[in-house]
Amino acid sequence: MPVTIIPSFLIYCYITGVTPGPANLCSLSTALHYGKKTALRQWRGLFWGYFIVSMCAVLITRVIGTVFNQYVGYLSWIGAAYILWLAWHTFHSSEYEEKEATHTPDFFTGMCLQFTNVKIMVSCTSALSCYVLPYTDSFWVLLGAGLFLPFTGPMANLLWLYAGASLQNIFRNYQKQVDTVMAVSLVLCAVTLVWTH
What we know:
The protein has eleven helices and no strands. The chain is 78% helix and 0% strand. The protein has one domain (3-195). It is an all-alpha fold.
């Protein structure tokens, strides 16, 4: 990867990491509903899930190369459907809490979320196929970029997590409104995911 392309790569990683998506909104929601300690436990799962997805993206882009790009559109529709399901669940989360205590988010909840998070699948494969493969066919450069990616998205998750933890007391008074805003944000994520393909 040429040095001149690195700033563009870093901006891409920042934008895809910090924009609302399933993991970011889940981090915010978990911090709001369960507090920082539980949210950090879930975040560790988000990190390792992202790491595994990133390493799979390295292998997929290495083995399949540009052929994989024709399937991104299908993955986007599957991911959009999943994000809409998350939006529905988020919108009704306060109702679930009132009925009975639900499963407290943990490491495996975070990891499983990342395994179904099409946003990061598309983000990782796009980063590798657009910023690395056109400039080198070195597996080690591809692996290096793949190892860097888990330090972008999950770090952005921490921003959302700490925002939720610091605003927890305020948002408890407006739980339904917060759930509605997060659900609408997820719907917008789903729409933009398929709108571009």
